[in-house]
Amino acid sequence: MLETALQMYEAAIAWLLDRKPIEIDLRELDNTINDREQDIRGAILKHISVDPYTDTAFSLMLMSIVQDAERIGDLAKSIDKAASLAQAPLKSSHAEMLRPITDAVAALFDKTTGAFVDGDPDLAREVMDANDAVKMQTTDFIHSLAGEVHITVNEAVILGMCARMIGRVGSHLSNIASSVALPFDQVRRAPTWPAPLEDKEE
Known about the structure:
Blueprint: H1 2-18, H2 26-50, H3 56-83, H4 93-118, H5 121-146, H6 153-181
């Protein structure tokens, strides 16, 4: 699901920032993700029905994970739709300021997959920490955008909407990673990591 979502995300971002036509069918790929979510939910339901006392917590967590993955596909489609509202190529300095944020989020896909497949809590924490940085960058970007006077309303609206959606992609990836790093009852919550020894009070 995440591999497919990454394809969609990268295509939507290339359309947004570089006006590169989308050559894949986002709707078809989104349907693929939705079908996979449905298959997984069906398998979980069958498993719990047969043996409700085994892997219950993991089954519930997996339901949450596939929901996050499905939402990323929806967000990629929404970025595409917002980008299609552009009346001209986005050429302001703010469009370029958004690029490193989009790249940072793209880099989280493989790390999230690796953390989940390998059950690697350290890599999962890297994803969560990186997403915290993305959230701060996105907030700073939107604040800067809101104070910009040398930009068209069309471009400002598109960049603002897309920045928020790109940030949400990062948050969904962080949610998936949190399933590896945190106990089930704390999944999707921003943890407070233990302070380094040198930061602790004597």
